[in-house]
Amino acid sequence: MTEATWATGASFTGALNEAAKLTDAAIDRLLVVPGGFEARVVEAMRYAALAPGKRLRPFLVLASAQLFSVGRRSALQAAVAVELVHAYSLVHDDLPAMDDSDLRRGRPTVHKAFDEATAILAGDGLLTLAFEVLSHADTHGDPAVRCELVASLAQAAGAAGMVGGQMFDLIAEEHPELDIGAITRLQRLKTGALIAFSCEAGAVLGKAPADLRMALRGYAHDLGLAFQIADDLLDVHGSAGETGKPVGRDAAAGKATFVSILGADRAQSQAALLVRQAVAHLDLFKERADLLRDAAHFVVDRRT
Amino acid sequence: MTEATWATGASFTGALNEAAKLTDAAIDRLLVVPGGFEARVVEAMRYAALAPGKRLRPFLVLASAQLFSVGRRSALQAAVAVELVHAYSLVHDDLPAMDDSDLRRGRPTVHKAFDEATAILAGDGLLTLAFEVLSHADTHGDPAVRCELVASLAQAAGAAGMVGGQMFDLIAEEHPELDIGAITRLQRLKTGALIAFSCEAGAVLGKAPADLRMALRGYAHDLGLAFQIADDLLDVHGSAGETGKPVGRDAAAGKATFVSILGADRAQSQAALLVRQAVAHLDLFKERADLLRDAAHFVVDRRT
Questions:
Q1: CB atoms inside a 10 Å sphere around CB A195
Q2: Do A132 and B116 touch (CB under 8 A)?
Q3: Is B115 on the interface with A (CB under 8 A)?
Q4: Where are the domains of chain A?
Q5: Which of B32, B142, B150 is best to mutate for the A interface (most A CBs within 10 A)?
Q6: B46: chain A residues, CB-CB within 8 Å
Q7: Integer Cα distance of B281 and B25 in angstroms
Q8: Does B225 touch chain A (CB under 8 A)?
Q9: Which residue in chain A is spatially nearest to B173 when comparing CA positions?
Q10: Digits of tens for pLDDT over chain A (304 positions)?
Q11: CB nearest to A135's CB, from B98, B147, B170
């Protein structure tokens, strides 16, 4: 495993790709298919966690960890944990009883490639594994830091975070009258909490002072919302070929989104404003945070 | 919260009931229903985790912790965590794509009382919360102990434990030719691993020496198998009224079970043998382990 970190002035695209490669290699080493009938669930876990993807959250962990000179080995453990949680959430979100999606990242979803029971279990297995990874001594020499990461990830992923946001989202489908405040809160829970964990994990690993940690939290908050607005815009303007998943589903479901409430133009300028705000939170870090600045621009300019 | 522990000679039934009350009170305090649409998932989590039940696993945690003079507050945290994982596994196991069960502990299952999407999310939320509970400072003053519990629970619950066993179990339905060795391994994964965690958690919290920990592991292993054989016998001889869930499902599904392979009489004597073995592992603890001895007899004599 490389211990090298990204030089000042490193290309964002190069760093994002490297983060994806490092994360996938670590997940590949972690998810060894056992003998016995239980092999099937691990195959499904691999299918989900190693699916093509940007690995934006692992990148955010590695880039934020580098601000505090955290070793790559430690940072990669947290990066893997957050990607496992993200992967699990997609597997369960795609299930027939949830979003009922057959296509994800251009491939059949897990319940289509395997079956529904295997998809439920694979999601459960990925979520469980994330906590095993964080609790491992490789994550940090100080067990208090590992416990803090376990607690933070559980809060970000649980009923007061992502799971709560998914519940909110399902109920929101029956409430097209929801206003911008409600949709903002929904997205903060559903996607924002895990993105915030990704940005803060580096600060936790580096035992960063409170002001720097708050700066990353502010960055993550604005980034998460900008990311979601961009997602809503892609659902309206993107193509299934580009995004690798069905588009136009929000409008078809009559769901309130940033775009349905604000209109595409105002949504676009709101996303741009959030990116400027996100970047402003990084001033304290000077040029060492350039990769995170680039990431903020990337999330609203992406096509997938 | 009481800090009192059970006196030597305490009644097993009384201790089991007290463990259930303490656990339910702690879960009740933990699962506060929030405002907002996400309230629904927390209501479902409460419905699942506070459903009527024996709370055998929390009892095993408290009784094993008492062997090492672990404080009730610490032990109760681990007891709650294991019960949350047990509750989540039942919610997902009952889903239409899994066992498709409408009745659990005499009440509608979560996907019947709520809906399927809420049941999936409630299970996810319970599993996530278990790790948050273990990582909390209330569980133990030493974060290394908390990390060890997180790692152990993740291993017991994940693809190399319970989730793997559930996968194995689903595939086993298509393989009625499985022999006693395969069924033993299946049950060790599916129910044995979490029972073993329950018995070992007290030793971890008490930083017990290896020989005592191994003794508890041996006890848990035999107890878990005896428990499962008793479950199979109840599926054949029990009534839905007594067990609170449909019976005769294994035979109807053509599943290989301890009873289908050994016959009811040999299964019964095998369970009795395992109880004697389980109890023998406790010799080191003398009369201080009487409650655990009683628990072993209870699991094979129970009617529910």
A1: 25
A2: no
A3: yes
A4: 12-301
A5: B150
A6: none
A7: 32
A8: no
A9: A37
A10: 344 589 888 899 999 999 999 999 999 999 999 999 999 999 999 999 999 999 999 999 999 999 999 999 999 999 999 999 999 999 999 999 999 999 998 899 999 999 999 999 999 999 999 999 999 999 999 999 999 999 999 999 999 999 999 999 999 988 988 999 999 999 999 999 999 999 999 999 999 999 999 999 999 999 999 999 999 999 887 766 666 666 677 777 777 889 989 999 999 999 999 999 999 999 999 999 999 999 999 999 887 7
A11: B147
What sign does the dihedral B15-B17-B18-B24 (CA atoms) show? Answer: positive
Q: Does B140 touch chain A (CB under 8 A)?
A: no
Shortest Cα distance, chain A CAs vs residue B298, angstroms: 31
The whole-angstrom separation of Cα B139 and Cα B147 is 10
Residue ranges of B 56-95 with Cβ closer than 8 A to chain A: 88, 92, 95
Mutate to test the interface with B, among A135, A155, A188 (most CBs of B within 10 A): A135
Q: Collect all residues of chain A within an 8 Å Cβ-Cβ radius of residue B49.
A: none
- Percentages (nearest 5) of helix, strand, coil residues in chain A: 70, 0, 25
Q: Which of B163, B169, B183 to mutate to test the interface with A (most CBs of A within 10 A)?
A: B163
> What is the rounded (10 degree) CA torsion for B253, B257, B261, B263?
-100
d(CA A192, CA A155) in angstroms, rounded, equals 12
A20: Cβ–Cβ under 8 A, 6 or more apart, which residues? A53, A54, A55, A58, A59
CB contact under 8 Å between A150 and B136, yes or no, is no
Tell me which of 3.40.50.720, 3.20.20.10, 1.10.600.10, 3.40.50.880 is the CATH number of domain A12-301.
Answer: 1.10.600.10
Angle at which helix B39-49 crosses helix B12-30, to 10 degrees, equals 180
Those residues with Cβ within 8 angstroms of residue A211's Cβ, 6 or more apart along the chain or in another chain? A284
Q: Is B174 on the interface with A (CB under 8 A)?
A: no
Give me the interface pTM, i.e. the ipTM: 0.95
Tens digits of per-residue pLDDT, B19-71?
Answer: 999 999 999 999 999 999 999 999 999 999 999 999 999 999 999 999 999 99
d(CA A97, CA B69): 46
Among A116, A125, A163, beta carbon nearest to B163: A125
| Chain A contact set for B192 (CB, 8 A) | none
